[in-house]
Specification:
The chain is built from 3 helices and 32 strands. It is mainly β. The longest helix has 11 residues.
Length: 455
């Protein structure tokens, strides 16, 4: 594997107006290895032989991570036809990178007992939920990361050992019963400053693929998330209660939000740049549903959304709402998406509080194009918590096929043209826009790269 890569300056760094991540972010460089671990298992497609399910590599991977000095990597490498590793929960260490070589797959264990937070808690459906350790944890470790052209496969659709259900079956059961599933996430990074994901491919997580919270400095560059539609709650990348976040040059299709920025009670959620990404099926570019901690200074630019349930979405409700402001979406191309623009102040949730009221204001759509039919939802909470948006060169290829639901909204049009006129109760439109050309979307919609394919 090539160990050093030419650094390229992130567009956001070249154009400071877009640099809502206050760092100067450049393309990561893979560090030298401190240890090379050879594979001892052989995968056939997305499976390993059932006889190998008890041959875990957890202990030797963890030992290598524990012994590796900061600034180096633990490398997982194919050898002699063996190309797979199998692990239960592991913990990353400060300054150490887990490097998964191209052609190598790191599989998550299918045994729920490996992930138990308390005896028997994982692999169940309960009222409370949150009964599983993640596959990979990064707790209060600065400068850690996961890199490489290999794959980490959570096997969310595979049957669990000792049970005739998959992780995803449990998630569906929880939905039907209005309960909570206990399924692990691939990566949970908590208070892990300066964390980096680079080029890694993440597949079929039992729950969220990546959860990052409480940190300062997170970069996901060139990451691929590829998960089946049937995987409920399999969000792609979810940063929350953090600052200085960049997600760039990524390809994401998932069973839930492609990216969901969380803003629950805790540290501020702010200074985030989401740039040069491609989303496929999933629930879109989301903020929420937790917004009671506030979200601000977020920039989304050069994004394609193709065939998703939702496009640009901000969601919350009166049990977890708060102020969402200074959010700009620019150069966004959306096609064949059920809800291209979805501002939802009454998002469904099992919570009961009614004193955390959502307010979305200072939301800017600039150079946004929507192709194909859909529903536009512009839902302010009430007349004192109106939705405040600016539409600047927002173009619909066929405005007549758009359904509109709008209430409690103040919309400012211009200076670019807008060719859709939302109407609804307590909806005010200021301005009319000019004659700007529709955003150019030619070449924006590209296939999701296959394993081993050049990106």
């Amino acid at each position: 594997m090539v160990r050093t890569l030419i650094a390229a300056v992130l567009t956001a760094a070249v154009c400071p107006a877009w640099a809502q991540d206050t760092r100067t972010v450049t393309e990561p460089v893979i560090p030298r290895s401190c240890t090379v671990l050879p594979a001892k298992l052989k995968a056939s497609g997305k499976a390993i032989p059932s006889a190998d399910e008890d041959k875990q590599d957890t202990a030797r991977i963890q030992a290598a991570l524990d012994a590796c000095p900061a600034g180096r990597a633990v490398e997982l490498k194919a050898e002699g036809g063996q190309n797979a590793f199998l692990t239960g929960p592991i913990q990353l260490r400060a300054g150490v990178v887990l490097l998964v070589d191209g052609g190598v797959t790191l599989f998550g264990s299918r045994n729920p007992r490996d992930y138990d937070l308390s005896p028997g808690s994982c692999g169940t459906v309960t009222e409370k939920g949150h009964g599983c350790k993640p596959m990979i944890a990064a707790n209060q470790v600065k400068g850690a990361g996961i890199m490489g052209d290999g794959t980490i496969d959570g096997r969310g659709g595979a049957k669990l050992i000792g049970q005739n259900v998959s992780w995803w079956d449990l998630a569906q059961e929880a939905k039907v019963k209005n309960l909570s599933q206990n399924c692990p996430r691939i990566l949970v990074a908590t208070k892990a400053d300066d964390f980096t994901l680079y080029r890694i491919r993440l597949e079929d997580s039992p729950n969220f693929h990546v959860s990052y919270s409480g940190g300062n400095g997170f970069t996901a560059w060139g990451v691929i998330v590829d998960t089946g539609k049937e995987g409920r709650n399999t969000d792609g990348i979810d940063p929350g209660n953090s600052t200085n976040v960049t997600i760039t040059h990524c390809f994401i299709r998932a069973g839930d939000d492609n990216v969901a920025i969380k803003a629950g009670a805790g540290a501020p959620t702010m200074h985030m740049t989401i740039s040069h990404n491609h989303f496929y099926y999933g629930h879109g570019m989301s903020i929420g549903s937790e917004t009671d901690g506030g979200a601000s200074a977020i920039r989304v630019t050069d994004l394609s959304i193709d065939g998703a349930d939702n496009g640009i979405r901000i969601k919350s409700n009166s049990s977890r709402g708060g102020l969402v402001e200074d959010i700009v979406y620019e150069d966004v191309c959306i096609r064949d998406t059920r809800n291209p623009i979805y501002m939802d102040s009454n998002y469904s949730y099992r919570g009961t509080a009614t004193d955390k009221l959502p307010q979305f204001t200072g939301i800017v759509l600039r150079n946004v194009r929507v192709d194909g039919p859909g529903k536009i939802t512009l839902d302010g909470f009430d007349d004192k918590h109106k939705l405040g948006m600016t539409w600047d060169n927002v173009y619909f290829s066929d405005p007549a096929v758009q359904k509109i639901a709008a209430v409690h909204a103040e919309l400012r049009f211009g200076p670019g043209a807008v060719n859709l006129l939302p109407r609804g109760d307590d909806v005010k439109i200021i301005g009319s826009g000019g004659n700007t050309k529709p955003n150019a979307c030619e070449g924006k919609f590209v296939p999701l790269p296959r394993p081993g394919e050049k990106r």
